[in-house]
Amino acid sequence: MSPSTSPRFFTEREVAHHCTKDSCWVLLGTRVYDVTAFLRMHPGGEALIRSRAGKDLTWEMEGPPHRHSPNARRWLEQYYIGDLDRGSGAEEVQVKLGR
């Protein structure tokens, strides 16, 4: 997203719907990333990200089994598409997802 573009806001429900190889979104905290184009390049394999599609990756980025490098975090930023809209019933979705 370019600096001149206003961030978009998404609900957790919207993010959760993007969980296929053709549209793969993930969360890192409240930031939303469309990592579809990165799936085939992920060093850990495409399946690893796809199994976490539509979910928050904070735990996976912090480890274990390994903490992702600062470079990996910078790389992720190119896929940033917006932020999570916490005022949209996100708590209800979290309960349904067992969080």
N-to-C SSE series? EHEEEHHHEH
Rg to the nearest angstrom?
A: 13 Å
What is the count of helical runs? 5
Report the structural category.
alpha+beta
Spatial ordering of strands, largest sheet:
1-5-4-3-2
* Weakly predicted, low-confidence segments: 92-99
Sheet with most strands? 5 strands, mixed
In whole angstroms, the N-to-C terminal distance is: 29 Å
Bin the helical content: 25-40%
Overall 3D geometry? globular
- Secondary structure tally: strands: 5
How confident is the prediction overall: mean pLDDT? 84
Strand content: 15-25%
List keywords for this structure.
single chain, 99 residues, alpha+beta, five-stranded mixed sheet, 30% helix, disordered C terminus, metal-binding
Task: Describe the protein in words.
The protein is of the alpha+beta class. A hairpin with a 2-residue loop joins strand 3 and strand 4 (31-34). The protein has a 5-stranded mixed beta sheet with strand order 1-5-4-3-2. It has helices spanning 12-16, 46-50, 58-62, 70-77, 90-96; strands at residues 8-10, 19-20, 23-28, 31-34, 80-84.
Helix and strand arrangement:
Blueprint: E1 8-10, H1 12-16, E2 19-20, E3 23-28, E4 31-34, H2 46-50, H3 58-62, H4 70-77, E5 80-84, H5 90-96
Parallel strand pairs: 1-5
Antiparallel strand pairs: 2-3, 3-4, 4-5
Task: Explain briefly what this protein structure is.
Belongs to the cytochrome b5 family. This protein has 99 residues and is of the alpha+beta class.
